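User: I'm curious whether this sequence folds into something compact or stays loose and floppy. Could you predict its structure so I can see for myself?
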Amino acid sequence: MSYCLGELAERIGAGLLGNPNIVIDRVASLEAAGPSAVTFLSNRRYRPYLGSTRAGAVILAPEFADACPVPALLLDNPYLGYARAATLLSPPVEATPGVAPSALVDSGATVAPDASIASHCVIEAGASVGAGTSLGAGSFLGRDSSIGPHGRIAARVVICRGVHIGARAIIHPGVVVGADGFGIANDNGIWVKIPQFGGVRIGDDVEIGANTTIDRGALEDTVVGDGVKLDNLIQIGHNVHIGSHTAIAACTAIGGSARIGSRCTIQGAVSIAGHLEIADDVHLTATSAVSNTIREAGVYSSGMPIQENRIWRRNIARLRQLDDMARRLRAIERKIDRRA
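Assistant: Here's the prediction. I'll summarize afterward.
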C-alpha cells in the first residue's frame, strides 16, 4: 500500500510540516529509512539519529519539529502514530474464503461462508466460526467452542471445548486455550486429578502471543476482557480474570483464581500467586513476584537488578547476616533506652 503524505497525516490524525504530495509506501527505522519510508521518534535516546535521517517523513512530537530535516508528522504520541501508519501501509493478507479439502469439519459445526479454514484443521460438533475469520493450517476448534467475526487464528492453534472468543481476535502459532487447569488433591501422598468443568471466555480485540496457554476454569470460566494483549509464553491459570485493556509481556505466570484489573501493564517474567487481586491501573515491572493483593493503582516492583558478580556475592553474604545484625541492633537500642 502507498499513501500521499497529506492523506497519511489525515488518516493517523497528525499535523503536517512539509510537502503533502510525497508518496510513502513503507515504514523503517530512523537510520535505515529512505525517501519513500516513514519513520518515527518516540524515545529520546534515538534523538541523535534524527538530523541525518533520509526518511520521506518522521512522526514525532511537536517539540522536535525544528530539529527534523525532512517533512514531519506531528503527534503528541508518536509511537501511536507509528502503529497507525504501519497498519495502513502493511495491512494483513486476506485469507481466501472456503474450507480446504483436508480439513475435517463436523456436520454439526457452523462455519461462515466467507470464513477460511486451512489444510488439516479440525472443527468439532457444536463449534462455530464467524464471518471473515481464518483458521491456519493444523488448528483445532473443540466441541461447543466459538470464534467471533474477523478473527485471525494462526497455524497449530488448539482451542479446546467450551471456549468462546470474541470479534477480531489475533491468535499466534502454538497457543492453547482451554486445556485443563492444575487441579489436584492429595490422598496420603498420592495426587488425584480434579476434573475441570469450566470454560474460557475471551472478549473482543484480544491478541494472544505464540505458545501462550490459558487454562479452562475448574467450575466457573476463566475470563479475558476486551482489548487484552498477551505476549508469547504466558501461563494463565484456571479461573483467572483479566480486566479489559491489560497488557502482559512474555514469560509471565498467573496462578489460578487471580483477578487482575483493567488497564494494567505487566512486564516480562512476572509471577503472580493464585487467589490474589490486583486493582485497575497497576503496573508491575519485570521479574516482580506478587505474593499479596494489590488494592491501589500505581507502579510496583520486586527482585534485585543484575550486578557485577563480585558485588553480588558480597551483598548476598551481607544479606545472610541481616537477621543477626537486626538482633544486635535491637539489643543496642534497648541498652540506649535503659540509659535514657
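Summary: The mean pLDDT is 96. The chain is about 15% helix and 30% strand.
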